[in-house]
Write a structure and sequence with these properties.
The chain has 243 residues and is mainly β. The protein is built from no helices and 20 strands.
Length: 243
């Protein structure tokens, strides 16, 4: 005869077959000790339940990710991370939401996705942006943003700002040339020829014009009302796309 549940009268602690044997014991109906629910102790490693694919991590709770795991936000990854899994049932099966946190290149990054049905069909990973990840280097893969939301930079040829949707704006202040066209090399290259506008800061009437060179530079000029080339300070703006 084996006692399924024993209570220590001195400590009040429970033991026996009715209690989970470990934090990863998923036997139905067993009592959950402190630490098994992910809040009272260190999150167990997914290796304890032999998970090597995020698609298979459907047990609700908090987990530590280590080792080579497939279908993470970075594809097949060997980087350590943590994961919160929330599972609920509905008429056609289950809804499972995964929240994954990685420290990648010194930056905290948080992702989530949802799986539904029986068997589960997983949606795409989506990154959660925050005050620490809005600004930085923008990037993309097939038109899907993979970096920061806004990137700003400058060089001797002006300033630029890029957005995650592909929009890019370059600005610069430069004097026109009274002897011929002046070239403005953009501080950041465009993916296609941008729209460029030029205005002058001189109080006298001026006529401006541009001669597009392509994705990396433009020639601009300024004339007075008599058609003579002049060299006032000009304000240049180029708007286009970086991808």
């Amino acid at each position: 005869w084996t006692e399924a549940l024993r209570i220590d009268a001195a400590t009040g602690l429970a033991s026996g077959a009715a209690v989970q044997s470990s934090a990863t014991d998923t036997t139905a109906g067993r009592l959950m000790p402190v630490g098994a629910f992910g809040l009272g102790g260190q999150a167990p490693n997914v290796a304890a339940i032999s998970v090597t694919d995020m698609d298979d991590l459907t047990v609700g709770g908090m987990w530590t990710l280590s080792g080579v795991i497939a279908n993470t936000p970075y594809g097949t990854s060997g980087e350590p991370g943590t994961c919160l899994v929330i599972r609920r049932a509905f008429s056609a099966g289950a809804v499972v939401t995964q929240f994954v946190n990685y420290l990648r290149n010194g930056e905290e990054r948080l992702w989530y996705r949802q799986g539904t049905g029986n068997p589960l069909t997983w949606g795409d990973w989506r990154e959660v942006y925050h005050s620490g990840s809005l600004l930085g280097t923008v990037s993309q893969s097939g038109g899907t943003p993979t970096g920061a939301v806004i990137e700003r930079g400058s060089s001797a040829s002006g300033d630029y700002v890029r957005w995650a949707d592909g929009t890019q704006i370059c600005t610069h202040d430069a004097s026109a040339d009274a002897t011929g066209e002046k070239t403005w090399s953009f501080p950041a290259a465009f993916a296609a020829r941008p729209q460029v506008s030029v205005s002058c800061g001189n109080a006298a009437p001026r006529i401006t014009g541009v001669n597009q060179l392509g994705q990396t530079a433009v020639n601009f000029s300024a004339w007075d009302i008599n058609g003579n080339r002049v060299s006032p300070v000009c304000y240049l703006i180029a708007i286009g796309r970086w991808f």
